[in-house]
């Protein structure tokens, strides 16, 4: 048996070897880089310098996919989804704009359930992030400009998130249970979530609930993995999911942090917290329930199993 990927074929034994090699590089490279950075230059997870220090490790999934495709399985890049075809613009728009819907839903639920009140002045969050700084009065027009600025940031940050997505969606998810796209998305989401564990234990995502974060984060990454799989197959490009991932961080993560950080129940109200499962889960239910999650054709090629 083999798996086809356009111009090349990969036997199942080689595919398993490739997946194991990929996971070894993605986990080993990232965890070693993060551990070294935290040991050599310890900074607060709340500091922008923390994200900068963690950045090299974030490219380990892409490095793993490049090494495996080129040197381990020698399958090449025919199904890697590297082409950018903006004629398929709708999935790009979905990935970029959906976090705005997610944040609006979280804010409404948090206020309605009495879990936390969004602070539109941003003084609470900025005070928690920079307690020694003097906070100026923010202009009223800020909320007209802030979403546009964060959306622009997401576009600019897309090549950085390619460092993850070329590995997770561009390689691994297309090799795990290739003919069962929902199972592949769930499996990849769980692996992707566990990959983040050193950052969670360092206090990056859930600073006050680190152990709880080990349980919450993989649920969120499973939901995101289903959505990103749908976006990639609709766009036929790994760049679409890189943009969606960048928007998740730059728009969803930043806006919920500015509205809620420093307040109560952060594990509930963060973008990848419990309330965040509502908008993400609703989109997943629509994708799966309407049969839109199918084995894909990234790069114009659909992996197919065939008998020798």
Question: What does this 3D model show about the protein?
Answer:
By secondary structure, this protein is an all-alpha fold. It has one domain. The protein is 63% helix and 3% strand. The protein has twelve helices and three strands. It has helices at residues 12-40, 48-54, 60-72, 89-113, 123-129, 142-168, 181-195, 197-201, 210-235, 238-260, 266-269, 277-289, and strands at residues 2-4, 9-11, 304-306. It has a three-stranded antiparallel sheet with strand order 2-1-3. A hairpin with a 4-residue loop joins strand 1 (2-4) and strand 2 (9-11). Helix 4 runs antiparallel to helix 9 (210-235) and helix 9 packs parallel to helix 12. The longest helix is centred in the first third of the chain and has 29 residues, at 12-40. The protein is globular. Mean pLDDT is 88; it is low at 1-8 and 298-308.
In short:
The protein is an all-alpha fold and 308 residues long. It has one domain.
> What is the 3D shape?
globular
Overall residue-averaged pLDDT value: 88
The structural class is mainly alpha
Number of β-strand runs: 3
What is the number of helices? 12
Low-confidence stretches: 1-8, 298-308
Oligomer: single chain
* Pattern of helices and strands: EEHHHHHHHHHHHHE
What proportion of the residues is helical, as a percent range? 55-70%
Distance between the termini: 5 Å
Largest beta-sheet details: 3 strands, antiparallel
Strand content: under 5%
Cα-atom Rg, whole angstroms? 20 Å
- Read across the widest sheet, the strand sequence of neighbours is 2-1-3
Q: How many domains comprise the coordinates?
A: 1
């Amino acid at each position: 048996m083999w798996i086809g990927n356009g111009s090349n074929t990969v036997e199942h034994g080689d595919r398993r070897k490739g997946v194991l090699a990929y996971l070894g590089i993605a986990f080993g490279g990232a965890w070693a880089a993060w551990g070294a950075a935290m040991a050599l230059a310890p900074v607060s997870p709340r500091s922008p310098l923390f994200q900068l220090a963690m950045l090299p490790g974030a490219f380990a999934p892409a490095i793993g996919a490049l090494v495996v495709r080129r040197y381990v399985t020698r399958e090449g890049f025919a199904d890697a989804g590297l082409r950018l075809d903006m004629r398929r613009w709708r999935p790009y728009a979905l990935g970029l704009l959906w976090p705005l819907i997610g944040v609006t839903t979280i804010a409404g639920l948090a206020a309605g359930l009495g879990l936390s009140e969004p602070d539109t002045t941003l003084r609470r969050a900025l005070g928690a992030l920079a307690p020694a700084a003097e906070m100026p009065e923010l202009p009223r027009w800020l909320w007209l400009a802030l979403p546009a600025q964060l959306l622009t940031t997401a576009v600019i940050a897309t090549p950085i998130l390619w460092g993850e997505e070329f590995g997770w969606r561009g390689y691994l998810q297309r090799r795990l249970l290739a003919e069962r796209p929902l199972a592949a998305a769930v499996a990849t989401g769980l692996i992707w979530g566990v990959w983040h564990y050193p950052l969670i234990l360092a206090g990056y995502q859930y600073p006050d609930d680190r152990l709880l974060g080990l349980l919450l984060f993989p649920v969120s990454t499973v939901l995101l993995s289903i959505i990103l799989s749908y976006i990639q197959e609709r766009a036929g490009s790994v760049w679409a999911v890189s943009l969606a991932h960048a928007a998740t961080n730059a728009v969803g993560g930043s806006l919920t942090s500015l509205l809620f950080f420093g307040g109560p129940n952060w594990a509930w109200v963060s973008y990848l917290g419990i309330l965040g499962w509502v908008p993400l889960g609703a989109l997943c239910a629509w994708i799966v329930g309407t049969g839109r999650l199918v084995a894909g054709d990234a790069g114009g090629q659909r992996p197919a199993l065939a008998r020798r």
